Amino acid sequence: MNRLATLRASRKGKVSLGLGAAVVSLAIFGGAAAANAASAPAPQQAARATGGGVTLGEVGCAPGTITIKPFNRVEVKPVPQKPVGAGGEKTVDNPNCKDIAHAIIGTWRSKDCETASQDLTRRRTYVFGRHDVAAITYDLYGGAGCEENAKLFTITTHGIAAFVGPSATVAGASNVRFTFKSRAATPTTAGLGALQNACPQYHWAPGVSVDLSKDGCGALVQSNTECPVEYDLAAIVSGIAYFGDRSHPLCTEATRPTKLASWGVVKKP
Question: Which of 38, 163, 180, 186 is the most buried if burial means most Cβ atoms within 10 Å?
Fold first, then answer.
C-alpha cells in the first residue's frame, strides 16, 4: 500500500471511530440524550419562558390555578387527579387534556435538522393514532445537514401515549406517559460499523431491522424491561409540538422533565 493509500485508510478509520464513539455515547430512548444541546435555537413563539424552555403552550391540559410568582416564575397547581397507572390499571387520557389529545392526532416531523451531538444530526417523526397508539422514529445522520446519503440508522418505537394530566412545573403543558411495546434499529451501510461497535451481540445488516425490545442496545436504546415507560411532557405552540427536555433519563415519574425541549415538530398536511 503506498503512502497516499495508507493516509486515506488512516483518515477513514479515524472518521469511523469518531462516529462510532459519538453513537455509543448518544442515548435515545430510555437514557439521557444529547439531542437538546444548549446550542439548539430556542422557540421563537410568543410564550412565557423560564429555565430555557417553553413554559406556556397554546394547546395542552387545562391547568388548575396559575400563579405568577416574583421574578416572573410561573407556578401551577394541577387539577386534582388520582395517580394513573400506578396500580397497573390502563393508562387513559385525562379529561382535562382532551384538547391536546385530539390536536396531536396525525404525523409530526422535525421542523429543522436537529443537532444530536457534535458530530451527529437527526430528524424525528411522531405518529399518533386515534386510539392512543404512537410510533416514534429517530433518523440519525453523520455530520451537519441531515443529508440522506449520510444517514447512519433509524430507531423506531411503538407503544401507547396517554395525556395523564397538566404539568405541575410547565404551565400549559401536558404530562405524557409513553408505554413502549417495541423498539428496533435499522442501520444503513454507513452506520453499520457504529451499531456493530455499540451492540455487537446482534447480527446487523444494512436495511434490516433488529428488534431491541428485550435486551436493548447498550446505552443507545434501553430495553422494555429497563425502561418500559417514559414520563414526558408535551405542548403545542403556534402549530409546533414540543416534547420534554431529554438531557436525563425519563424512566420514572421523579425524572419527568421540568421544561420543554428547544426542538419542535410540525404536523404534516
Answer: 163
Q: Which residues touch 137 (CB under 8 Å, ≥6 apart)?
A: 124, 125, 126, 127, 154, 155, 156, 157
Q: Which of 130, 118, 149 is nearest to 40 (CA)?
A: 118
CA distance 122 to 64: 36
Residue range 155-180: mean pLDDT, rounded: 91
Residue 244 — pLDDT band, cuts 50, 70, 90? very high
Q: What would the grid cell of residue 130 be?
A: 386515534
Check pLDDT > 70 for residue 37.
no
Cell reading at 9:
485508510
Convert the pLDDT of each residue in 172-225 to its tens digit. Answer: 889 999 999 999 999 999 999 999 999 999 999 999 999 999 999 988 899 999
